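Subject: sequence -> structure tokens, single chain

Hey, anyone have a minute? Need the predicted structure for the following. Not urgent.
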Amino acid sequence: QVQFVESGGGLVQPGGSLRLSCVTSGFSFKDADMGWYRQAPGGRREAVASMRNTASGGSPIYIESVRGRFAISRDDAKNTVYLQMNTLKLEDTATYFCMRPGWFNLGYWGQGTQVTVST
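Reply:
Had a minute. Here:
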């Protein structure tokens, strides 16, 4: 059974840090490109960061607004992808999800993890 289980969100002040985790199952994680996505209240789901599978070099890609502040990483032995978020801003407030790029319409989205940046 394919599953994506996100965790690590919380309430943090601007400038703070959080590390998100996403444990996956039901597919060959080591062969999968992975991504983090977020959806703010009333907004559309947007890609935040993605990472090629390890055999392809594991190259990360970031949207401009998080580049230099966020870092995506993976542990193939644990079927887990991470998102280290530093210097958080108010506009980073959203529910964060992980997913394989290209699987958006297959119905496998997890519950996500809520990140709230607030004073």
